[in-house]
Every structure is written in structure tokens, then in C-alpha cells.
């Protein structure tokens, strides 16, 4: 198996509803500017980083949420809050990540993350 294959398998596990069943890697390309970015994420993020043995998926989600909150990466948080639930975090633990980030990334970043979490996780009790 290649890194890209591993990445695609991780992507499908973490984001099961993003691509239709049977879709391949090419479904991540749209023909627009920089359309290989999604494919590169399979190799570099999902295939290399998410498959490393040093941290379990739950721990990786904790780290990822903290980084994305600090970066105010709202588009990515919309994907990673549900991934965190899938990886075993509870809604209360996600709230604690947001609270904790307020002390290091600032209240505006934490407030933005809270807004995205409410929008994204509403109904995922």
C-alpha cells in the first residue's frame, strides 16, 4: 500500500460523508486553481501524519483542535469537530479544549471556535 492509499483510507474513516461511495482520489480534484491540494493532503496529512504510531487518533484530534483554534481555521474546524467525536472525544472534552485554548490562543479565537462548534455539532448529542 502507498502513502496515498493509506491517506485515502484514513480520510474515508475520518470523513465518511465527504465523498460518495466508490469515489476515488480523483474526486478530490475539481479542475480549478491548485486542485491538487486535496490530493497532497492525502499524502502529507492523512497518509503520513495521521498514520504515525506515536499518538492515537483521539490524541491527534486533541492536538489538531488546539492548533486549528489557535489559527482560527474555521473551515477546517467544521470538519475536525465531528472527526474528534468520531475519534472518541466527548462534547464536554471539546468544550474543555476551547476553554483551554482561550488562555493560550486568546478569547477571540476561542469564541470563534465555540461558534463553529455550536454550528457544527448541534444535534450530535
Automatic annotation (TrEMBL):
GO terms for molecular function: 4-carboxymuconolactone decarboxylase activity. It comes from the Bacteria. Residues 46-118 form the Carboxymuconolactone decarboxylase-like domain. The keyword Lyase applies. Its EC number is 4.1.1.44. This is 4-carboxymuconolactone decarboxylase. Keywords: Lyase. InterPro entries: 4CMD/NDH-1_regulator, AhpD-like, CMD-like. The keyword Lyase applies.
Amino acid at each position: 500500500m502507498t502513502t496515498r492509499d493509506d491517506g485515502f483510507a484514513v480520510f474515508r474513516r475520518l470523513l465518511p460523508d465527504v465523498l460518495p461511495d466508490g469515489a476515488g482520489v480523483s474526486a478530490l480534484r475539481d479542475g480549478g486553481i491548485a486542485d491538487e491540494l486535496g490530493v497532497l493532503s492525502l499524502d502529507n496529512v492523512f497518509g503520513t501524519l495521521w498514520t504515525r504510531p506515536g499518538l492515537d487518533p483521539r490524541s491527534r484530534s486533541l492536538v489538531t483542535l488546539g492548533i486549528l483554534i489557535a489559527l482560527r481555521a474555521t473551515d477546517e474546524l467544521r470538519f475536525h469537530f465531528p472527526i474528534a467525536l468520531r475519534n472518541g472525544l466527548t462534547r464536554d472534552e471539546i468544550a474543555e479544549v476551547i476553554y483551554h485554548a482561550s488562555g493560550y490562543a486568546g478569547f477571540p479565537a476561542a469564541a470563534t471556535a465555540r461558534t463553529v462548534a455550536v454550528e457544527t455539532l448541534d444535534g450530535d448529542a
